[in-house]
Amino acid sequence: MISLPFANKLSLSLLVCTTLLTTCQVSQASTTSNSQTPAAKESKIIGGAIDCDNDGRQNDSRIDDDGNGIPDRCVIDTSANAQQKIKTESTKEIFDTLMQALTEMTEGCDEATKVRAGVSYRICTINNQPVAASEALLEVGDGVGFWFKNNKVVAIRYFHSGETLFFDDETLIAKFSDDAELQSNFTNEERREAENLAKEGYQTIFQVFAESAK
User: Fold this and answer.
1) CB count, 10 Å around CB of 46?
2) pTM of the model
3) For residue 126, pLDDT beyond 50
4) Where is the segment annotated Disordered (predicted)?
5) Helix residue spans in the chain (DSSP H)
């Protein structure tokens, strides 16, 4: 994926972000069920959930593979393991891919920096179009960074917390915590705050450079 152009990579990765948590568990369970099922027969769940693996949880299913109404096997619930794998491996890989894409997008950009009242303002452009901008306190480094594609924000990073937000056409799609934990569902307030920042949060940075050019 690293060799893909940024736009394609970003779209693909964000698609994975939005579907990963809702599809991986289902697909893994389906694969477990269908891999042992004859192609000519339709497997069905028989009865309610039971405890097949003696783990004290009624979360396993009895499966009838040949349509005779008699359970042929039991499928152990794997959602907990699947979720753990997503959190510890898959989301970290997605996050690393996205951050690598942002880095590649800004390679070779023309960088300019201004300092005012203890705040460092930075903007990076390619062909006079912004690809990145940031503002940060000089003493503590606290601040925020923006990445742009076609003059719209595609990512925001809070330097103090390490949280990184990703957008598609200024719509919030995913947020990663500092340890790459993925969040793809948001309250109205969370979404409104993030999307307002994506539309207006960088204006101060641009204004600093516009004023200095006068």
Assistant:
1) 15
2) 0.61
3) yes
4) 50-70
5) 6-34, 79-85, 91-106, 188-200, 203-212
